[in-house]
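Table 4 source record.
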Amino acid sequence: MEKFSAFRDPGTGIQPFLPLVPPAENDPFTTLLLPVRGVLAILRIPIFIITTLLYCLLHYSLFVILVSFDSTKTNRKSQESPWRPRAGDIIVSNWTSWIDVLWIAYR
C-alpha cells in the first residue's frame, strides 16, 4: 500500500485510494454509548414526525391561501381591463420567489 502514499492529500492526510477502516465493534466506549444512542433515537422519532406534519400542514395552508387570492382576483376581472400576453411578448420581472413557482405549478 505504500505505492499509494504519493496520492495522499498533503493538507489533510486523506488517502483517497485506500478503503476506509470501520470502527471496532468491541470498543468499550461504543458499548457504553449504546443506551444513549437508543434514548436519542426514541426522542428523535417524535420530533421528526411532528416536523413532517407541520411542514405538510403549512404547505397545504399556503396552497389554499394562494389559490383563494387567485379566485378573488378573478371575481374582479370583469371590472378591469384584461391584460393577456401573446406569443412573442417579453415579460420582465425584477424579482421572483420560490413561492411563485409553487403557485404557478399548482395553478
